């Protein structure tokens, strides 16, 4: 058994020297290796700015789309309201004539004339409010309700008069 | 931090400008007023809740809670609301103009000719109780549009339906002060208010739980009036298209061209009507009642019940006969003057 104390003192390593071309060979091999891809930060910056611009444009378009849509709805509402108004006014006019044909009570005719004049004045007032704020749900409702009220008042009173007249006829027949 | 991450963070911050839920205070102020002073409230296209103040101050508190509104949208909304106050001596005047709902993301399909005839179907002749009237009162606002059909714009609606704006305008008034309210296209709610109140409203409506002050006066034109309990006060209804009253006593109603439903008609009620429609769902036995009407339509419920008021009507217009009524009846507690009227009996 060798003395361990002497094991490293003995020159056991090979004595062979490196060839003179070793360095050149190493550099040649190194250059042949595939080079590691370099990160292109410039391109990343351009992409990030692009994403940012797209994001900003999206937010801007979203916010402005709401206003555009309101504008479209306003035009639509005005158009539809005009149609509804024309229909109602034609019906109201017909029903007013029908009412005059059946009503004999002067006081009733006077009250109804006053009522319809007053409702027409209210309608003009609400129309002004509508022009100022065309997209207001309550103002649109007020306009339509005004027309509905006029029409239903005239229709209801005619039914009422017909029943009263039927009773009169019944009494006259009984006599 | 590397540049791309910084940009990404910036992008996230921009897109979160759309806040999910936020409450914005529009106006908040307290005022000292004289104990017997006057608080005047002028409202234009707004909604307000009037409550009792627990101290001797008037509290004006207007806030709006937004859901999924961008900062810009919130700012636009809040800027449209105008609240001003003016204090003179021991009196206070509050003026407010609100911002109303819009047709956002709803589109009109068409006007409907049939809609012209839908109004007559409004009230179904089903007997109502005080509880059902109260339930109906607080069922919430339902758009009344019938002539124009609207439908949601599907492309926007799925996202936008989750958006919301909820204005909350509360005025607290101390006991004793006189309350004067002028409203136009507004909704005024009262909660446990016993103050003497003078209210005039044109379009819009009034919702109140209980009114006990006999000096109070309410004038409603072209609107709705809902009250759970009336124990005093005077009312003038002109073109009230929906009047709902849970119970009424010690009160006077002047009525023109209006439709009023009363669940419980109690003692000492006086009604002067011209061309109105009334629904009396429950007539209290032995209730004193004074009715002066011309061209009115009266719906009386409790057919066949032994009730002095029902008996008074049926003594003049028999059940099942022609409903036309022209009569005068004067009794100890009942005074009925019905000219050109129609009386219908229901179960």
Structural class of chain B comes to mainly beta
- Average of the residue pLDDT scores of chain A: 81
* Integer count of domains of chain B: 2
User: How many alpha or pi helices of chain A?
Assistant: 4
* General form of chain A: rod-shaped
| % residues in beta strands of chain B | over 45%
Count of individual beta strands of chain A: 0
How many angstroms separate the termini of chain B? 80 Å
Basic shape of chain B: elongated
Strand order of the largest sheet of chain B: 11-12-14-16-18-20-23-21-19-17-15-13
Q: What string gives the helices and strands of chain A in order?
A: HHHH
The radius of gyration computed from the alpha-carbon positions of chain A, rounded to a whole number of angstroms, is 48 Å
Number of helices of chain B: 5
Helix percentage of chain A: over 70%
Strand portion of chain A, in percent? under 5%
Order of helices and strands of chain B: HEEEEHEEEHEHEEEEEEEEEEEEEHEE
Total DSSP E strands of chain B: 23
Which structural class should the secondary elements of chain A be placed in?
mainly alpha
- Give the biggest sheet of chain B: 12 strands, parallel, barrel
Oligomer state equals: heterodimer
Structure report:
The complex is a heterodimer of chains A (175) and B (347). With 175 residues, chain A is mainly α. Chain A has a domain at 70-174. Helices cover 79% and strands 0% of the residues of chain A. Chain A is built from four helices and no strands. Chain A has helices at 22-32, 41-102, 106-132, 137-174. Chain A starts with 21 loop residues before the first helix and ends with a helix. With 347 residues, chain B is mainly beta. Chain B has two domains: 19-99 and 164-195, no CATH class; 128-138 and 203-347. Chain B is 14% helix and 54% strand. Chain B has helices at 3-15, 71-80, 130-137, 154-160, 308-316, and strands at 18-32, 38-44, 47-52, 57-70, 82-88, 91-97, 106-111, 148-152, 164-173, 178-191, 197-211, 217-221, 224-231, 234-238, 242-249, 251-256, 259-265, 269-274, 277-283, 289-294, 297-301, 324-330, 334-346. Chain B has a twelve-stranded parallel barrel. In chain B, strands 7-8 form a two-stranded antiparallel sheet. The longest helix of chain B has 13 residues, at 3-15. The chains are: A mainly alpha (175), B mainly beta (347). At the A-B interface, helix 2, helix 3 and helix 4 of A face helix 1 and strand 7 of B.
């Amino acid at each position: 058994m060798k003395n361990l104390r002497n094991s490293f003192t003995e020159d056991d390593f090979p004595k062979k020297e490196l060839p003179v071309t070793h360095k050149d060979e190493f550099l040649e091999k190194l250059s042949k290796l595939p080079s590691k891809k370099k990160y292109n930060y410039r391109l990343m910056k351009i992409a990030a700015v692009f994403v940012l611009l797209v994001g900003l444009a999206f937010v801007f378009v979203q916010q402005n789309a709401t206003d555009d849509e309101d504008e479209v709805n306003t035009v639509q509402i005005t158009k539809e309201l005009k149609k509804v108004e024309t229909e109602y006014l034609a019906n109201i006019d017909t029903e007013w004539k029908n009412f005059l044909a059946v009503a004999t009570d002067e006081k009733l005719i006077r009250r109804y004339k006053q009522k319809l004049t007053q409702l027409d004045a209210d309608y003009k007032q609400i129309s002004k409010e509508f022009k100022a704020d065309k997209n207001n749900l309550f103002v649109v409702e007020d306009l339509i309700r005004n027309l509905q009220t006029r029409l239903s008042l005239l229709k209801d009173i005619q039914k009422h008069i017909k029943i009263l007249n039927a009773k009169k006829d019944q009494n006259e027949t009984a006599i | 931090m590397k540049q791309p991450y910084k940009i990404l963070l910036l992008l996230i911050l921009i897109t979160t400008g759309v806040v999910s839920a936020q409450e914005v205070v529009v106006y908040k102020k307290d005022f000292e007023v004289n104990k017997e002073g006057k608080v005047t409230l002028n409202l234009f296209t707004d909604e307000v809740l009037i409550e009792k103040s627990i101290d001797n101050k008037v509290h004006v508190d207007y806030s709006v809670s937004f859901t999924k509104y961008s900062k810009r949208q919130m700012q636009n909304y809040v800027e449209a609301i105008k609240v001003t106050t003016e204090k003179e001596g021991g009196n206070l005047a509050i003026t407010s103009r609100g911002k109303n709902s819009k047709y956002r993301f709803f589109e009109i399909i068409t006007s409907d000719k049939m809609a012209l005839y839908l109004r007559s179907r409004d009230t179904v002749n089903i007997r109502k109780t005080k509880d059902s009237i109260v339930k109906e009162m607080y069922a919430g606002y339902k758009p009344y549009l019938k002539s124009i059909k609207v439908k949601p714009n599907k492309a926007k609606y799925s996202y936008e339906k989750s958006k919301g704006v909820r204005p909350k305008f509360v005025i607290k008034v101390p006991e004793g002060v006189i309350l004067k309210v002028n409203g136009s296209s507004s909704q005024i709610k009262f909660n446990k208010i016993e103050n003497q109140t003078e209210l005039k409203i044109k379009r819009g409506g009034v919702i109140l739980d209980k009114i006990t002050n006999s000096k109070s006066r309410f004038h409603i034109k072209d609107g709705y009036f809902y009250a759970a309990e009336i124990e005093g006060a005077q009312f003038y209804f002109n073109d009230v298209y929906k009047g709902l009253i849970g119970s009424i006593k010690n009160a006077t109603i002047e009525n023109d061209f209006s439709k009023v439903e009363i669940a419980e008609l109690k003692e000492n009620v006086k009604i002067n009507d011209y061309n109105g429609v009334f629904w009396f769902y429950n007539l209290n036995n032995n209730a004193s009642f004074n009715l002066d009407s011309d061209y009115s339509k009266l719906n009386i419920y409790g057919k066949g019940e032994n009730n002095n008021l029902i008996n008074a009507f049926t003594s003049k217009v028999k059940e099942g006969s022609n409903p036309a009524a022209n009569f005068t009846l004067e009794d100890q507690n009942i005074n009925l003057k019905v000219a050109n009227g129609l009386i219908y009996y229901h179960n």
